[in-house]
C-alpha cells in the first residue's frame, strides 16, 4: 500500500540522515544545500527515526484497530522480544568507541514503555504526546539538576548494564543522548500516526496544517523568545565555556557537541543551562525542540505518502531507496560497523569527515538494499529479528 511505502521511504531518509550525522562533515553556517541537509539531519534524523519506531509498533499491535485477546497478547510478546534483542545489540555497540551515540538500546526502553499505550485511540495518543512535549523537558531538567556525581556513580555501580556497556538505565531514561523521558514524545507521536488512516483526504488535510504549524511554533517562537530575552547570547556564552566532552561516542553526533543544552549533573536549577529550555537546537530536549522536530517528522511522512500515492513514476524511481527503509536495522548496524572499521576514526566529524565519505555510505547502502531486496523480502538482521519474535506464537 502506498502509505506503507511512504513510511519505508521516510525511514530510508532517516537512515541517510543518521549517516550524515555520524560520517558527514559538520555543516557550515550559511552554506549551500548540502550544509542545509547536514544541519537538518542533526538531531532531526534520529527524531524521525524514533517517530517511525512508534509507527512500527502499531504495525505489530494493529494499525487502525488495536489487536485484542490472544492476538493482542502475542503482539505485546513480539514487542518485548524485539526490545530485549535491541537492548543486547545496542549495549554491544555501546561497548565500542561509538559509545552512547547508538540509539538501539534506547529503542528497547521506548518499546517497553509503549506497551501500556498500544490499545489507545489516536486522539488519546495525541493528547499524551502533547502532554509529554510540554511537561517532560522541564521534569528532565529539574531531575538532572538535582543529580550529583556521587548519586550517578552510586546508581551506575548497581546497574549491570552500565557496568557492561557504559550506557546504563539512568542514561537510557534520563541522561543519555536519546533519553526516554523526552524521546517518548516522538514514539507516541508515531503511534498516533500509526492509528490514523493516512489514505484519508481529511486526515491528510489536517496533518498538512498540523505539521507546518508545529514547525513554525517550535522554531519560530523559540527564535523570537531567545532574542527578546537575550537568552541567545547567554547560551552562546555558556557554550563557549563548556569543557571538552569526554565521551568519544557522543562526539559522533555534532548535535551533541554543538547543540546540546541538557543540564549537566549538579549543574544547578537556575544555572546558565536553564536557557536551553527555550532553545530549539538539536538534542536540547526542550519543548520547542520536541515540537519542531515532531512537525518535521509529520510533514516528511505526509509529503512522501502523498507523493508516492499520486506519482507512480516517483515510486518506481525511488524503489532502491525504499528498499533501504525496509532493512533499516541492518543498514543502521552495518554503517556503525563500517565506521568502527575505518582507520584512525576517519568518520569522526568534523576533523576528517567529508561529503565524499557520506556519499559512499549512502550509495553503498542503497546498492546493497536494492540488490538484496530482489532476492529476499527482509534484510539480514530483520530476518533474524522476525524469526526470534515467532516465539510469541507460543503465548496463550
Summarize the helices and strands and which ones pair or pack.
Blueprint: H1 2-23, H2 33-61, H3 69-94, H4 104-114, H5 122-146, H6 149-157, H7 160-165, H8 169-175, H9 180-194, H10 201-229, H11 231-240, H12 254-258, H13 287-310, H14 312-317, H15 319-326, H16 328-341, H17 355-373, H18 380-389
Helix pairs in contact: 1-2, 1-13, 1-15, 1-16, 1-17, 2-9, 2-13, 3-4, 4-9, 5-9, 5-13, 9-13, 10-13, 15-17
Write up what this structure looks like.
This protein has 18 helices and no strands. The chain has helices at residues 2-23, 33-61, 69-94, 104-114, 122-146, 149-157, 160-165, 169-175, 180-194, 201-229, 231-240, 254-258, 287-310, 312-317, 319-326, 328-341, 355-373, 380-389. The chain has one domain (2-394). The chain starts with a helix and ends in a 7-residue tail after the last helix. With 396 residues, the chain is an all-alpha fold. α1 (2-23) packs across α15. Helix content is 69%, strand content 0%.
Amino acid at each position: 500500500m502506498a502509505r506503507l511505502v511512504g513510511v519505508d521511504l521516510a525511514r530510508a531518509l532517516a537512515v541517510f540522515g543518521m549517516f550524515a550525522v555520524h560520517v558527514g562533515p559538520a555543516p557550515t553556517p550559511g552554506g549551500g544545500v548540502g550544509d542545509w541537509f547536514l544541519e537538518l539531519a542533526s538531531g532531526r534524523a534520529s527524531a524521525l527515526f524514533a517517530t517511525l519506531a512508534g509507527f512500527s509498533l502499531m504495525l505489530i499491535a494493529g494499525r487502525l484497530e488495536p489487536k485484542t485477546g490472544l492476538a493482542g497478547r502475542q503482539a505485546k510478546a513480539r514487542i518485548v522480544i524485539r526490545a530485549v534483542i535491541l537492548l543486547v545489540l545496542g549495549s554491544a555497540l555501546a561497548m565500542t568507541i561509538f559509545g552512547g551515540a547508538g540509539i538501539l538500546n534506547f529503542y528497547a526502553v521506548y518499546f517497553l514503555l509503549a506497551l501500556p499505550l498500544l490499545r489507545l485511540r489516536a486522539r488519546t495518543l495525541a493528547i499524551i504526546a502533547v502532554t509529554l512535549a510540554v511537561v517532560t523537558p522541564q521534569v528532565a531538567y529539574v531531575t538532572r539538576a538535582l543529580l550529583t556525581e556521587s548519586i550517578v556513580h552510586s546508581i551506575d555501580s548497581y546497574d549491570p548494564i552500565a557496568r557492561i556497556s557504559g550506557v546504563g538505565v539512568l542514561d537510557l531514561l534520563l541522561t543519555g543522548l536519546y533519553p526516554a523521558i523526552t524521546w517518548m514524545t516522538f514514539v507516541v507521536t508515531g503511534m498516533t500516526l500509526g492509528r490514523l488512516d493516512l489514505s484519508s483526504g481529511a486526515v491528510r488535510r489536517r496533518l498538512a496544517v498540523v505539521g507546518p504549524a508545529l514547525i513554525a511554533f517550535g522554531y519560530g517562537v523559540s527564535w523570537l523568545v531567545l532574542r527578546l530575552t537575550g537568552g541567545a547570547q547567554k547560551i552562546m556564552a555558556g557554550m563557549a565555556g563548556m569543557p571538552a566532552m569526554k565521551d568519544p561516542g557522543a562526539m559522533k553526533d555534532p548535535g551533541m557537541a554543538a547543540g546540546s543544552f541538557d543540564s549537566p549533573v549538579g549543574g544547578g536549577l537556575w544555572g546558565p543551562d536553564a536557557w536551553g529550555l527555550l532553545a530549539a537546537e538539536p538534542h536540547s530536549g526542550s519543548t520547542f525542540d520536541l515540537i519542531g522536530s515532531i512537525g518535521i517528522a509529520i510533514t516528511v511522512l505526509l509529503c512522501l505518502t502523498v507523493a508516492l500515492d499520486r506519482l507512480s513514476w516517483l515510486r518506481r524511481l525511488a524503489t532502491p531507496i525504499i528498499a533501504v527503509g525496509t532493512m533499516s536495522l541492518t543498514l543502521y548496524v552495518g554503517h556503525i560497523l563500517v565506521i568502527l572499521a575505518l582507520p584512525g576514526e576517519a568518520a569522526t566529524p568534523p576533523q576528517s569527515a567529508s561529503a565524499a565519505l557520506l556519499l559512499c555510505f549512502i550509495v553503498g547502502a542503497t546498492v546493497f538494499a536494492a540488490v538484496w531486496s530482489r532476492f529476499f523480502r527482509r534484510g539480514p538482521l530483520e530476518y533474524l529479528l522476525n524469526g526470534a519474535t515467532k516465539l510469541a506464537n507460543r503465548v496463550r
